[in-house]
Amino acid sequence: MLTRPQTQRYSAEAGLGNIMIAEKEVVLTYLLQLLEDRDILERLAFKGGTCLRKMFVGSAGRFSTDLDFTRIKEHDHQDVVLAMMEAFESPFHDVQFSIPDDGYYETRDGMSWGVNPSYAHEWNPSGESEIRIQISRREIPTLPPTSISQCQQSYFRHLPFEPADITCMALPEILAEKLRACYQRSKARDIYDLATFATRPIDRPLVRRLVVLKLWQAGDAFEPEVLLAKFEGANAFDWEDLRQLVRRTQAIDPVDITAACLSGFAFLKDLSSEERVLAADRFRRERGLWKRLSEEIVVDKAQGPPT
């Protein structure tokens, strides 16, 4: 594990007011490396806020305290938990991970499961710190996951290993899942992540199609106006939850963040006629249409852009 002075230096470089956020960022890198080294991640695709920071935007992204994955192969979650427990038996470069007796859970709807491993090391020996790992089994990704390199961080030079490439969900699909999450709940972290991409070039028709498909799978109608109205309501989000996860010098302006999302994701209103049918199908009667629209995405991506 990095020494406390090394972690303190990284915390200062990152503009954090809390060294323990920096410590957790480093420990997440150790945990990803361990899971990759033990082939546990071969069944999973990385996604979520930590993935966006570590794999796509680097220091421009917010910090996070958990790891989110979705399954890419059918598996018995108990086998994965047992593999993790075996991997955690010995310290990994002086970081000792373990899964407490109450560290495993399944969501009420059965669509995801997770573990909350605790960790300890030389200068944080209590074993009370933990990381949340959640694995979705709602669906297999629509787009093929890809293995990519982690964004360079200043503390990488102190690591006792070269950070591994990690298999990730495709960026448009990660953003679609963020939009689905923001539609179904109100978390400042979600809208902040979306604002990071609101002015970046993205495949808008693809993201829009994926949002419709994912909300249909969740048994939820999609009304773009409802989501855009949520973006307008800056006060509906718990911004204090976010402040500790960004640089101290980085202003959290709810009005600017929500305005960026309101403008950047206005394209969600431009549903095709078939997307409108599926978006209104709350009871999932249009399974054939959902299947065809999903398959069209795969075919289009396989063929690539027109020449």
Detailed description of the structure:
The protein is of the alpha+beta class. Helix content is 44%, strand content 14%. The protein has twelve helices and ten strands. Strands 1-2-8-5-4 form a five-stranded mixed β-sheet. Strands 3-6-7 form a three-stranded antiparallel β-sheet, with no helix packed on it. Strands 9-10 form a two-stranded antiparallel ribbon. The N and C termini lie far apart (50 Å). The mean pLDDT is 91.
Sheet bearing the most strands, described? 5 strands, mixed
| Overall helicity | 40-55%
> Could you state the order of secondary-structure elements as H and E?
HHEHEHEEEEEEEEHHHHHHHH
Radius of gyration: 20 Å
Please, what is the average pLDDT? Answer: 91
Derived structural class = alpha+beta
What is the distance, rounded to the nearest whole angstrom, between the alpha carbons of the first and last residues?
Answer: 50 Å
Strand order of the largest sheet: 1-2-8-5-4
Low-pLDDT regions? none
Strand content: 5-15%
User: How many beta-strand segments?
Assistant: 10
Morphology = globular
Instruction: Give the helix tally.
Output: 12
Keywords:
12 helices; 307 residues; globular; three-stranded antiparallel sheet; 10 strands; alpha+beta
Short structural summary:
The chain has 307 residues and is an alpha+beta fold. The chain is built from 12 helices and 10 strands.
